[in-house]
Write a structure and sequence with these properties.
The chain is an alpha/beta fold. It is about 30% helix and about 25% strand. The longest helix has about 45 residues, at about 5-50.
Length: about 280
């Protein structure tokens, strides 16, 4: 027959075992919840966050030449085709046709740098860029991911590729707007005139390497931070992560882009931008 002391020890062992079982169950529940939450968040970032391309609309009030007041600009950037597909491109094409822009700006990165694009995909992108409607002009700069296939895709699309170049666009009178395209390699561009100036650059982080003056800058590359928590990016350490900045007399608009480097987005849907010019 067991003594009272032995019974108490057995009871203590049983109680400790029950505590361990309960603790193990709690830990398993916590890990299960964390795992399920991770799967849900990851699935959202992959299947939802990278889809549903938004159209962001802005009014740009500035010292615009009279003939350009009311002109509609479409800005697209960072298609990164391997993270989107043909259906996405077709849907985007239909949306752009409804917008029916006057001027189109593309600020680079048709596909991710290491992606081996096929001839069929080159054709898809070529048709997309060719079918973008315009009235006054289509202009583009190369992105940091764009390689020799960029020229194959952009061939016969009516886009003017600006490699550290300046061109002037007119609309019914002799007062034009200068368009500068920067390719990321530091150089000097002479824009010492009184024309209203719009600059295109893939990565605005590099803009200050140039000694130029702009009224308006359109850029991309940063993808709005891709994965953001309370406006802080978890994967991108570039300086400029917001949609809009005002630096001295220069207004800067940075596109969220269409694709994704990591095939993931959170709290930061892909987008295109539409701007209407006003005085």
């Amino acid at each position: 027959m067991l003594s009272r002391e032995e019974k108490n020890k057995d009871l203590e062992k049983e109680i400790n075992h029950e505590k361990k079982v309960k603790l193990s169950k709690k830990i398993m529940k916590i890990f299960s919840l964390i795992f399920i939450s991770f799967i849900i968040i990851f699935s959202y970032m992959y299947f939802v966050g990278t889809r549903f391309i938004k159209t962001k609309e802005y009014l740009i009030k500035d010292n615009i030449p009279n003939s350009f007041v009311g002109v509609k600009i479409l800005h697209i950037s960072d298609i990164l085709y391997d993270s989107v597909n043909e259906n996405d491109i077709l849907s985007l094409e239909n949306e752009i046709k409804l917008i029916n822009p006057d001027i189109v700006f593309f600020t680079g990165n048709l596909f991710n740098k290491d992606y081996q694009i096929s001839n069929n995909e080159i054709k898809i992108l070529n048709n997309f860029m060719k079918n973008i409607p315009y009235k006054l002009g289509k202009y583009a700069v190369r992105g940091n991911c764009d390689n020799k296939n960029f020229d194959l895709i952009m061939d016969n699309t009516d886009f003017v590729i600006l490699d550290n170049e300046l061109t002037t666009i007119y609309n019914n009178d002799n007062l034009g707007i200068d368009i500068i395209g920067l390719n990321g390699n530091k150089t000097s561009i002479n824009n010492n005139n009184n024309n209203y100036t719009i600059t295109l650059i893939n990565n605005y982080d590099l803009y200050h390497d140039y000694q130029i003056s702009s009224n308006l800058v359109f850029s991309g590359n940063n993808l709005g931070g891709e994965i953001k928590i309370f406006n802080y990016s978890l994967v991108n350490n570039n300086k400029y992560m917001k949609d809009y900045y005002k630096e001295l007399n220069t207004q800067v608009y940075i596109s969220n882009g269409i694709g994704s480097n990591n095939h993931l987005r959170f709290m930061n849907h892909p987008s295109i931008s539409v701007y209407r010019l006003y005085q």
